[in-house]
Design a protein that fits this description.
Layout lengths: L1 H8 L9 H33 L2 H27 L14 H29 L8 H28 L2 H30 L4 H28 L5 H12 L4 E11 L5 E10 L4 H19 L1 E10 L4 H17 L4 E9 L4 E9 L7 H13 L6 E9 L5
Parallel strand pairs: 2-3, 5-6
Antiparallel strand pairs: 1-2, 4-5
Helix pairs in contact: 2-3, 2-5, 3-4, 3-6, 3-7, 4-7, 5-6, 6-7, 10-11
């Protein structure tokens, strides 16, 4: 069914890597969500009113909020598809995250209202009518929501969309909550126990929990979370395989929304290599990252001295001291400058986050180690980088 809808809705369903195809897939998910959730909300709303079941009415409102969420998702993908302009030179792709945040807000509002009505039902219980029609509507709802979970989960994987995967998880949650509603109706019918209000409260709390989780998932990229480790690994693996590349460091990936990622990286090459050839290779690497990973990569060229025995000896000695202090510490951009009375050792260190605040301790440890039993005085100058930005 998913493949059929993609063929009907997309011009080129076999290529989902372009921003245009991504937007089309998001819109398809939005349209399907609106139609399915409105039908489910209407059916459950009618049954809830006729039977007096607050849990069924709560589930109907949940589906209505899902339909509203699908509308917001649809608007979000439409906005994200807008091209870059003077005010937004990096595009509008983060609108997808904003739509997810708006959906989370709707879910939280609906959840709070359901808590209120469920508590009222617990305090003032009224009987719930049960029939084959009620069971049929709820079973149909479970079936539709299960299909929507599989549908959105498949689309989310195909275009690597957090928003669609969240929509899929919401549909899965709806399967669970509707099953609970059906259980409440059966318990009241066969055992005459006032379970409707309690299960309605459980459904409401579950909705609130889902809303909080969805809000966290959408706020995190807006605040600037770390890039996908898998994407970072693909970039550095490709760079490391290229001729003339001796090393790399300071990888930073900036996420301006799905399909709009910008990155920078320092690449080390032998200083004796032809600069024009190195520049051409760097251009090729930048183009390939855009083509293969849809990442706009900017590479900084670092010429490295590799034929100076004294520099290599000192670098290895400093590296061993860093490893003694903490095996996770690494260095790059090592250079030395000779003074009248001492020698300056200048380099960068990739520092894990839990060592923040211990920079001076690390510097002193290295400096004392270099000056121990040495005929020459060394001064150590370190620039500390976040380890998450270094390979």
């Amino acid at each position: 069914m998913t493949s059929l809808l993609l063929r009907l809705f997309l011009k080129n369903p076999d290529d989902l890597t372009s921003p245009q195809s991504r937007a089309a897939v998001g819109k398809l998910s939005g349209y399907v969500g609106i139609v399915c959730n409105l039908l489910l909300s209407m059916g459950k709303g009618i049954v809830g009113v006729l039977t007096g079941s607050v849990s069924i009415a709560a589930d109907a409102l949940n589906n209505l909020s899902d339909a509203s969420g699908s509308i917001v998702t649809l608007i979000g993908f439409r906005l994200a598809d807008k091209p870059a302009d003077e005010d937004h030179p990096f595009g509008h792709a983060r609108a997808e995250y904003l739509s997810g945040l708006a959906v989370a807000g709707l879910i939280l509002i609906i959840g709070a209202e359901l808590v209120k009505s469920s508590v009222d039902k617990i305090l003032n219980p009224t009987p719930v009518e049960f029939s084959v029609v009620v069971a049929g509507v709820l079973l149909a709802s479970i079936g539709v929501k299960l299909w929507m979970f599989l549908f959105n989960n498949s689309l989310g994987k195909r275009i690597d969309s957090t928003a669609l995967r969240a929509t899929a998880q919401d549909s899965r949650n709806d399967c669970i909550t509707t099953t609970a509603v059906l259980a409440a109706a059966l318990i009241e019918h066969f055992w005459n126990l006032p379970a409707d209000g309690y299960i309605g409260l459980g459904v409401a709390l579950f909705i609130l929990y889902s809303g909080v989780q969805l809000a966290k998932d959408t706020i995190s990229p807006l605040l600037g979370e770390n890039a996908n480790p898998e994407l970072q690994q693909k970039i550095v693996d490709y760079i490391a395989e290229q001729p003339k590349v001796l090393g790399y460091h300071d990888l930073m990936v900036h996420d301006y929304g799905p399909g709009q990622r910008f990155a920078s990286l320092h690449v080390e090459m032998d200083y004796r290599e032809d600069p024009l050839e190195c520049h051409e290779l760097i251009d090729d690497m930048e183009r390939e990252c855009l083509r293969s990973h849809n990442v706009h990569l900017v590479i900084h060229y670092d010429p490295v001295v590799v034929d100076d025995p004294e520099l290599n000896r000192l670098k290895e000695q400093v590296y061993e001291l860093l490893r003694q202090k903490d095996p996770r510490l690494n260095l790059h951009d090592f250079r030395m400058t000779q003074g009248r009375k001492h020698m300056n050792l200048v380099f960068d260190v990739a520092r894990p986050s839990d060592l923040h605040g211990r920079e001076e301790e690390i510097r002193k440890f290295v400096e004392e180690g270099m000056n121990r039993n040495s005929q020459r005085e060394y001064h150590v100058r370190i620039t500390f980088d976040a380890a998450s930005f270094n390979a």
